[in-house]
Queue: 3 jobs
Job 1
Amino acid sequence: MNKYNLKIGFRILITGVLVVLSALLGACGSSTSAPIEQPLTEAILSPDWTSLNAGLIQKNCTSCHREKNAAKFDRATLIFDSEDNVRVEAAKMLEEMSGGDMPPPASKLSGPSAKNIAVFKEWVDSGFKN
Ligand code: HEC
């Protein structure tokens, strides 16, 4: 074995060790109680207007669904700037989010987590309790 082959062999060994380590770390991660699909930066919201407005709607929807942008839409009613407006569209919002259609896939925005979509649903199902 020449020097070059030794170098390659060493690289393969290190790569193998890293693969095993990351597999082990992955296994540990999945045994914790935190839901895996929850991005670390997205807090779990509570089923009320204040929390959902700040944590879900403002973060994922109003960059497009706001007054200034209304001209872009066929439907000017779809402006999520108040609780009243959101209540009117809530069922449709839920459907679009759950189906992965909003935010639009073409926008490349990741959108709210499944967990927070479920919290939004909880709020809708409660009859918009606050
Ligand atoms: C990148 C811009 C963008 C973002 C972000 C966005 N939307 Fe939309 N949304 C649109 C556009 C454009 C339309 C109208 C055209 C269409 O229906 O595809 C629309 C339409 C809708 C509709 C009506 C669909 C229908 O067929 O009646 C709903 C409901 C909706 N959005 C909900 C949401 C919700 C909820 C969020 C946040 C989770 C969101 N959108 C985020 C651009 C956006």
Job 2
Amino acid sequence: MAIASPSLRPLHKSLFPKYPCLSQYSRFRPSLHFSSQPFRFAVRASSAVALEPDLSSQRNQTADTDLFSCPVCYEPLIRKGPSGLNLEAIYRSGFKCKKCNKSYSSKDVYLDLTITAGLRDYTEVKPVGTELFRSPFVSFVYERGWRQNFNRSGFPGPDEEFRMAQEYFKPAEGGILVDVSCGSGLFSRKFAKSGAYSGVIALDFSENMLRQCNDFIEQDASLLDSNIALVRADVSRLPFSSGSIDAVHAGAALHCWPSASNAVAEISRILRSGGVFVGSTFLRYSSTTPWIVRPFRERILQNYNYLTEEEIEDVCTSCGLTNFTKKVQQSFIMFSAQKP
Ligand SMILES: C[S@@+](CC[C@H](N)C(=O)[O-])C[C@H]1O[C@@H](n2cnc3c(N)ncnc32)[C@H](O)[C@@H]1O
């Protein structure tokens, strides 16, 4: 089974000024406040080790909180395990919400912070724009031909899109970037390699996209020690506290989301004041689409939810984001908006 490298890699060396608990060398490293409590080391079939501290009997004890929050109640999670925002530290950590008592573990190569994490009987089926990308086949071919097809609709290609996004993200440099709906991590890896951020969280709802992302990271020695974390989450329920994130990127994703307004509201909620949101998507029609045809273009085409330039700006504005700017080429739009 593919897991984050089992060897003991050194934890990341960079400091996290905003999140001291994320640094290995921080004086706020997780202290073992509940070390006197019994721990159950549950060895799962996947061979991952989940730490399940019994926090229920803690009294008058402080706990170290994490960047990640519970998707049920948005309380910062308590983390037990090595600190650091990297694959190995997260793989070896257990996360628990003190408020609702729900445990989250990285029993696969990613940390599962969906509300449905750990459910035994209930299975949720999402709309096609979400379910399609959960397939192992689509996840495998995504960076092996699928994504290249976007160029025909005006997408400039990953290198240029990355360069454009980096321009928008200048005010957020040095902070935490969440690559929402990262797919197989095409841009997450570029953001992590750039060294411009103290941490990059590659986040997607698709388990197979995240596994594919992990495979690509393992094949790239320059990324193994970088501050990158793989998180499974729903864009409509982002596992971060309000105002805790500096930058959110969502490449070619908005049209796949079940509700653009719920997603952008969540993105706005987690951004700190001055934080930047950069997204790209396919527009419902391009500048070459005849005016006579435009009113008849269905909003939902082939199971995707395509918006117009005006609708995207409207959603961002109604979710409290300002300074909306955009670049358009055929059906491709890259836009940016800021949290005031
Ligand atoms: C077209 S891919 C984009 C991948 C990458 N960001 C890029 O620029 O190529 C869209 C991604 O959105 C993800 N997605 C769809 N619904 C989602 C949801 N509800 N929450 C989080 N991610 C979702 C899919 O799993 C898929 O990986």
Job 3
Amino acid sequence: MLIRPASFAVGLTAVAYGCMGIRGVIRQLPATMPPIPKFFTFMKTIFSTFFLLSFLMYPLALQAGEPVSGKAPQISTAADTCSECGRAECLNCPHCNSRPDAHAPIGVMGDHLHAAGEGMLSYRYMRMDMGPNYVGDDRVSARSFIGPPPTPFQIAPLSMRTEMHMIGAMYAPTDDLTLSFMLPVLDKKMDHLVATGATFSTHTHGIGDFKFGGLVKLFENGNAKTHLNLMLSAPTGSIEETGFVPPAGRVLRLPYPMQLGSGTWDLLPGITYVDYEGNLSWGAQLTGTLRLGENDANYTLGDEITATAWTAYRVSESLSASLRVSGKTWDDIDGSDPMIMGPVPTANPDLRGGSRLDVFGGVNYLFKGGLLDGHRLAAEIGKPVYQDLDGPQLGMDWMFQLGWQKSF
Ligand SMILES: [Cu+2]
């Protein structure tokens, strides 16, 4: 019984180390050595093309009435099984949907599919607090890298707070495909220290990048399920946010981290695996953010890779508690916005990349019976255990997420 979780853990660790390793090697290469990065650009083009093709082909395949993958075998018809899906207990069956941990911890997006004809509405509140600054994996004080000219920086970011409200909708036209839509609304605030000793804050808010696409079932073997995440991000978030900057004495376009969108169409490919046994469930997800082209302000945000794995324990019929690790690595900005300048690290496109390992604890609660029957509430809180940033750059301090979900 422990073989599945164990082999899964070994496999996931290998994948995570592989991703980190490849990125680490690329980052150590001198800038004058182009062949390997070029090879990756080439691979990205190939991968993106396949991704877009599969994204476009899927609705066509559905229209033609051709099932993309076979139906899962019905396992049991014993008396104590679910009358709808035929299982003793099912992870995602809409008819019994019996487990609080049938959904991943709330910080994981696109973790589950729905059955044909079913939909879901969700709302998430997310908060991230950043600070202090890091150079590599060392914390540095803001004072240590600012000063009067010729010191390159006269202004340092001290802390940043990001709040996000995200409205989500899912709908499954077939058992093999669940469509997903997500619209984030962002609120950002950054505090700064000037070399003179003065402090000031900047603030932006508005809608972020709209994300949409499909989750496509790949395999189903007993309780174990794997699906592809084929999502796209549309450039609906502003990249022209401005604010009053006291040291400059005027309104300026704010640095990259204060902008609300990427300005580019982005591919969000991924693969998700979930499984359960008894009171235990576990899963893993590997996702990427691949930027397509350059935005109207002449830059491209860095590509990202995130690998996450979690396990949850079912405490009761309604409550589960989860533990999750997440490794993320992301590139510097390519190009630069001529309107974004200033003696502050956040305006430097080469001081944006990094890697981070986060640990999260969470709970899922599924209401059973009564007025709120079928409603889900979940919360997750996380903190980095390791971060290595192209700095000076603000590091992550902690993250919190609260969510509500209801299937129809
Ligand atoms: Cu859903």
